[in-house]
Known about the structure:
By secondary structure, the chain is α+β, with helices and mostly antiparallel strands. The protein contains three helices and three strands. Strands 1-3-2 form a three-stranded antiparallel β-sheet.
Amino acid sequence: MAGPHTHEYDLTTLLPGERYCPACAGRVCDALTGLEGVTEAECDLAIGVLSVTRDPKLLSVAALESMLRRIAVEAADGVAHAAYRITGLD
């Protein structure tokens, strides 16, 4: 059971539409690991959920969410997401 300082976020909301891919979601999770005030960050890429546990003495909920939005934008904007249509293979 999650403690009072564990928060869950929908990765498909943080990385909406074409911005969502497992690689970008993984980059968001990796970026949170080791940040001051974040004691644990876990991603379940199969269901698109990020769980973050924070130390309330070092990191407020507002600061965590602001940081998370910035990290999500940087993770998605750091790569080009392209869709390719392949035809003529039948």
